[in-house]
Amino acid sequence: MKKMLAASVASAFLASTALASGHSEIKIGIIVGLTGPIESLTPQMAAGAELAMKEVSDSGLLLGGSTVTPVRGDSTCIDSGAATSVAEQQITSEGVKAIVGGDCSGVTGAILENVALPNGIVMVSPSATSPGLSHQNNEDNGLFFRTAPSDARQGVVMTEVLMELGINEVAVTYTNNDYGKGLADSFQAAFEAAGGTVTINAAHEDGKGDYSAEVGALASAGGQRLVVAGYVDQGGSGIIRAALDSGAFDTFHLPDGMISDSLTDNFGSEIDGSTGQHPGTDSAGAAKYVELAAGAFDATSPFSGESYDAAALIMLAMQAAGSAESADFKDRIMDVANAPGEEIFPGELAKALQILADGGDVDYVGASAVELIGPGESAGNYRQVEVKGGSIETVKYR
Amino acid sequence: MSVADRTPPWTSSGTCRIGFRLSRLEDGLDFLNAFVAFANFVMLPAVAYGSQLALGALGVTMIYGILRFSNFAHGDTMAFGAMATILGTWWLQAMGVSLDPFPTALLALPAGIAATAVFVLITDRLVYRFYREQKSAPVILVIVSMGVMFVTNGLVRFVIGVDEQRFADGARFIITAREFKELTGLKEGLAIKSTAMLTVVVAIIVVAILFWFLNRTRTGKSMRAFSDNEDLALLSGINPERVVMFTWIMVAALATVAGVLYGLDKSFKPFNYFQLLLPIFASAIVGGLGNPIGAIAGGFVIAFSEVTITYAFKKVAGYLIPAWEPQGLVQLLSTDYKFAVSFGILIVVLLFRPTGLFRGKAL
Is the pTM of the predicted complex or chain greater than 0.80? Predict the structure, then answer.
C-alpha cells in the first residue's frame, strides 16, 4: 500500500513534470511603437497586455498550468523595416506563439504580410484602424484580428443612425485628408447600399476664411441633412457657420471629429436637432479595467483596454482550442469573443479559463466591450448624440 | 392666389383662364426662386468678397503705381491692420462701449489705421528707403517686400497668436434666410449678412474718398504726377519723400479697412491673409497694375469668377427649366479648384492683354 502510494505520487510527480516541460511557458509577443509618434500611448498598451498575461499565469489554469511570458518589441509605429525585423526575431529566435500588435496601421500591415502570414502566427492588433486591414477575402488566412474598430465601421454606424431617423438623402462634405476622405467614402458606400442617396460628396480644405463657395455647391445638391466629416476646430465649423448663415442647412450629422465642447460653444442652440456619433461605451468593463490596473499605469489611456483585450482573447482562444499553436487556436478567437456564453469582464480571466476547461462557452466583453465582426475586427462602440437646447446629449449607445 | 382672384371665374372661359394664370404665376415664382438661390449663393458672397479684394488690390496697385514695385507684404499688412483694430475693439468692448447694431470694430478702425500707418512708415524708413536711394531694380524691391512679409507675418502671430479670433458683434443679419422665406413665401431663402452689407457700403465710401483725394487735392495730384513721370514731377518741385509718405499712409488705411472687413465678414486668422495675396494680386493685374479703377473691376471679376465657376447650378437650372432634371450638379469646377480660377484668369490676361483690362502698366 505504502509502495503503491509512493508509486502514484511518483507518477503524478512525473506526469506533472512532463506536463510542465510540455506547457511550462508560452511566449506571446507585444509589438508596439515604444519609440516614435505614439510613444506616449504604448507603455500603457504594453502594460495592459502584460496585465492580462500575468492574470492568466497567476491563475495556473491555462492549458493545465502553463505560464505566459510577454516579449516586448518596438514597432516604431512608422518604420516597417524595423517592425518586420523585430517580429521576425520574436518568432524565429524567441518562439512566440502569437503577437499582440502591431499598433499603427502601416507597420501592422507590414508585419502581417512579411512575417505573420509566412510563419502562420496569429496577430491581434489593439489599435490599427485602417480599413485596408479588413481582409474580406481571407487574404490573412484567418490570422489577423483587431480589438479596435476599422475606420470604415463608423460609416456603417452613421448609416444606421440616419436610417433610423428616417433620413435617406444627405449631402456630405469632408476634410481633405485620409481621415475625412476615408470616412466620407465608407459612409457613402454604406449609405447607398442601405438605399440612401448621397447628393454630393465634396471636400473642403481646413483653415480657410470663407466657405461660401463650398456651401453653395452643397446647398445646390440639397439633402435632408449635411454630413460634416471634418474637424470642429478647423474647417468643419467654418462649413457649419456658412451653411447656417446662408440658410442652406439647419441640421447636421456629425461624426467623431466634430463632437466636442467647442461645437456647442461655437453654435449653441443654432444647430438644435443635429445628430452625431463618436466612439464611446457605457459598458462596465472599462471601469473594472481601471480598478484592476490599480494605479500601476493609466488604464484610461487610449487603446490600453484594447491591448488587455487583445492578449486575453489570444489566451482564451488557446484554452478553448487546447493548444498554444496559432494554427489550432486561430479559429477559436471569434468563438470566445462573441456570444453565446458567459460574459467575461476584466479580472475574470481565471473564471473564463475554468469555464473553457470544463467545456463551456464564454462571451468575452473585456475592457472595450469586444464584439468581433466581419473578418475579425471589433464592431466598436459608439455613443449616438443629439444637440438639444444648445448642449450635446446622449441618445443611446450602439 | 391674388392674381387668380382678380379674374372673374364666372366669365365663359373662367376655369381655363384661372389655370392659365396660375401656371404663369408659378413660372414667375420659379424664376424668382432661381434668382433668389443664385443671389444667395453667388451674387451676395461674390459682391462682398469682390469688395474686399478690390480694397486690397487698390493698395497693391497704388504701391505699384507710385513706388513702382509689387508689394508682397500687402496681405500681411492687412493682417497687421486687422490685428491692431481687433486689439482696439477688445479694449472698447472691455470698456463697455458698443455701436450696436453696428460692429464695435468700426469705432476702433481709425486707431487701427493709425497704428498700421506708423508701422508701414517705420518699415519704409528702416527697409525700403535704403533701396529707393540705391535706385534698386523693382525685382529687388519685390524680394525685399517678401522679407518684410515674413517679418510682419511673424509679428502678427507673435502678438495675437495663430488661432482664429472672433471680434464681430452687433447684429449678424439684416434678414435671415428663414425670415426671408416667411416674408415672401418663396421656397428659397435669401440671407443678407450685415457684415456683407457693411463691407460693400464701406468699400464704396473708401473708394469715393480715395478718388476725390487723388483727383481733387494738391497732394493727390502730386502723387499722380509722380506716378506718371517721376523726373518731371521732381523738376516741378514735388517733394518725393512727402509723396512716398502719403502713399504709405493711404495704403495703410486701405489695407486696414480691407483686413477688418474681411475679418468681420469671415473670420480673422493670420494665415488667411497670407492666402489672400494671390487673389489680390490677380485682381490688381487683371484690372491693370497701377490703375485704381482697374483694381476695383479686377476684384469683382476675380470674385465673381471664383464663385460662379465653382457653383453647382443644379438648383437654379431645376427652377428655370423644370422639364430638365439634371442628374449631375451642373458644376463647372469642383470647389477644390477655387484658387486655380484666379491663376487661370491671371494667365489668360497676361497672355492676351498684359496691360490688364484697364490699360495699367505692362509687367
Answer: no
